[in-house]
Amino acid sequence: MKEPVFTGTCSAIITPFDEHGAVNYDVFGRLIDEHIERGLDAICVCGTTGESATLSIREHIAVVEFCVKRVNHRVKVIAGAGSNDTSAAVYLNQHAQDSGADAALHVTPYYNKASQTGLIKHYEHIADRSEIPIIMYNVPSRTGVSFTSETYRVLSQHPMINGVKEASGNFSLLAHTRAICGEDFYIWSGNDDQVVPMMSLGAKGVISVAANIAPEAMVQMSHLCLEGRFHEASALQLKYMDFIDALFLEVNPIPIKAAMNLAGYQVGSLRLPLCDMSPAPLETLRKSMKAIGLLD
User: Fold this and answer.
1) Own/partner pairs for 129-132, CB < 8 Å, 24+ apart?
2) Which residues are catalytically annotated?
């Protein structure tokens, strides 16, 4: 039987930039150390929140290698390796594997929008060439395509496919998937506002944006669920709802970078076509952070 890559909370870590727009490795290293010191169970590097879409291939590989080396086996590292070009995804997966990452995260192919048969062929092709576990990533709001539960069932049978980061918000899909895929196909929430309900249906944790700045809360929330203490976890989920909603007033990772800069982390700006947060939603974000003690 497969073991889950991690249980609990994994941070979808941001990529900090300096004033010239280059990766700021000094800040990045400090963020990695703080994430671990504050109890996170895993780190996902070069995902959506890490602005992988605007990192060059050379930067992407270097950021993954830096993260793996800095973590040094203290927690699990999941390296983003997804692409809408299957051969490119294999290439990034190989580099994640060579760097020492514990698993690779592969988003569904975007823009060219594969059929369900294409999704199966894509993921099987990558997994056949991987020596590290694969976590699939379902986020149809960004990619325009979603898995079906039957596609999950087929892919769950591959020994190198560990499970999926589910960010579709489709609880019917989640329930049907849990019903037909067996116990060693693992699901993680990809939405911070749905951690508790997803874990009540058997998800093993969350790959979290909010964990960049509120790691203790997200860790506690997921661990309470793992212990079956859903009433307490629900109270925590509700306490942080306004803040979590504010983190998605504009497209991720615009608000989380704004929040971290407000809190003094000096993570820099974003790369175009992403840009700074608009004044009105920024003020809403600021108020939500003050309400839960993230700002004085």
Assistant:
1) 129/90, 129/93, 129/94, 130/93, 130/97, 130/104, 130/160, 131/97, 131/160, 132/93, 132/96, 132/97, 132/101, 132/102, 132/103, 132/104, 132/160
2) 137, 165
